[in-house]
Amino acid sequence: MFAVNGFVFAIWVVHIPSVEDRVGISHATLGSLLLVLGAGAIVGMQTAGPLSDRFGSNRLVTIAGIVLSIAVMGPALSTSPMALAASLFVFGMFNGALDVSMNSQAVDVERLYERPIMSAFHALFSVGGVVGSLVGAATLAAGVRIEVSMGAAAILGIASIMVCSRFLLQASEHIAETHDAPGGKFTPRVLTLGALAFSLMLAEGVANDWSTLQVKEHLDTADGTAALAFGFFAAMMTVGRFCADRVSARFGPVAVVRYGNLIAAVGMLAVFSSEWLPLTLAGWAAFGLGLSGSIPQIFTSAGNLGSGPSATNMSRVVGMGYVGLLAGPALIGWLSHAIPLTTAMLVPLALTVVAAASAGTVRPPRTHVPQ
């Protein structure tokens, strides 16, 4: 499910320029429409939590995954800004619903395994994203029409979801327990985890959108060379997620968040201070490696708070994190009008230092997954 989600979303991302040309809108209008996608995602996340607690995450994962796969066709068929806005809202809403429900399902699977495996799920999302990007780039290079390529992706997504749904954990006694349990509100613990998710996903959003431009402007490199910054960041993020579960099993989730963010801080310090391309690229790589394991640990902690509906708590934390992911690039863009872009990188540097100091927030109750 994580890989399918990454694949479908990546197919949309690589076709954004084609959709922009088809609809005939400016970059500014596109930016506003992408906020509509984000708004839809937040609505979907907040709706998915209670629904998962009431009916089971397995049902919601299946429904959201199928509708998301169908909804990816919406932007491809849109011919006006209003139609594109509506299709992006629906796409974002079901992407958000799938995000929460599949993370809730992953928490349940992790409980049964009795060892940390959440980071591996998130790594598979990254792998799906890479595959989707490569497939999308190949279809664009071959001149395949956008309706055909995104339609094929939709069919593949639906088929994959239907196959995977047979192996999901079925609704069980914990559904009734969490439905009857008090909570699901923004408790102090939920707010603390949400603030941590907000900070780290903001930092991740900065890397996603600004790493390439930072290298290009700061070191005056060619576009192709500057693009290596994001490549190094994304590659080490994926590698780190495949390794983080073993680290968490041996040393605990607090160590993953604390020392991971210290590594990320050192990496961003190198990005901020370096005038040498190899060191700057190494800094972005270290930043990706350091951030890689933290969000999975936060989501696991949110799903194992021990009071209140599990998926509802998860939806609150994931939703706050997603706001950070949207806010980060915008914040850096605003700051870059007043200060150099590289100086603005002090924001993610500071956030990783604060996250390292706040790592104790993810310490799990003893009754849950042994660490």
UniProtKB/TrEMBL annotation:
Write out the GO MF terms. Answer: transmembrane transporter activity
Instruction: Give TM regions.
Output: 28-48, 60-77, 83-102, 123-144, 150-169, 190-207, 227-244, 256-277, 283-305, 317-335, 341-362
The family database entries (Pfam families) matched by this protein are listed as:
MFS_1 (PF07690)
Give the record's membrane topology: Multi-pass membrane protein
> From which domain of life does this come?
Bacteria
Q: Does the keyword Transmembrane apply?
A: yes
Look up the record and report any one GO term of the cellular component aspect. plasma membrane
Segments forming domain Major facilitator superfamily (MFS) profile: 1-367
- Primary subcellular site in the record, as a coarse category: membrane
What protein am I looking at? Fucose permease
Q: Organism source for this protein? A: Rhodococcoides kyotonense
Upper classification of the source organism reads: Bacteria, Bacillati, Actinomycetota, Actinomycetes, Mycobacteriales
